[in-house]
Amino acid sequence: MTAKFHRRKFVLAGLVAALASAQAAADPDLLPPDQAFKMRPGGRSGQTLEVLFLAAPGYYLYAEKFRFETDNKAVRVASVELPTGQTKWEEEFGKAITYFRGLVRVKVTLDGPPIPVKLTAHAQGCADAGVCYPPVSRTLEVPGGES
User: Which residues pair with 38 in a beta bridge?
Assistant: First the structure.
């Protein structure tokens, strides 16, 4: 992809995030995305990492919107294990969706050499008030581990 395409993609993502933040700011009952959906690293066992997500009370995260990637092609995401979530019919999507409230522990297994990488975690959720947020992303530093 070209640098121009990446700039446009970045600008578009920024505009979407700004609109969601503006809507949250306009409605004092809505939290900004970084407060509604928190993310941090959890424990590690070999090549399996735990990533913790916390949806604030009155907010939830969609199971199908979790996505992970590394910054190094030598280390790829081999699998993602989500806990059992709740299911509801979502008219907007015309299907049943799985979602999570509160603390969500996601296990991410990496495949490749045990070298330091950056793991970018993506998630998306909504407020019970009927407002859905654009995807949120955080990058976590993963130190090298033992083979």
Answer: 54
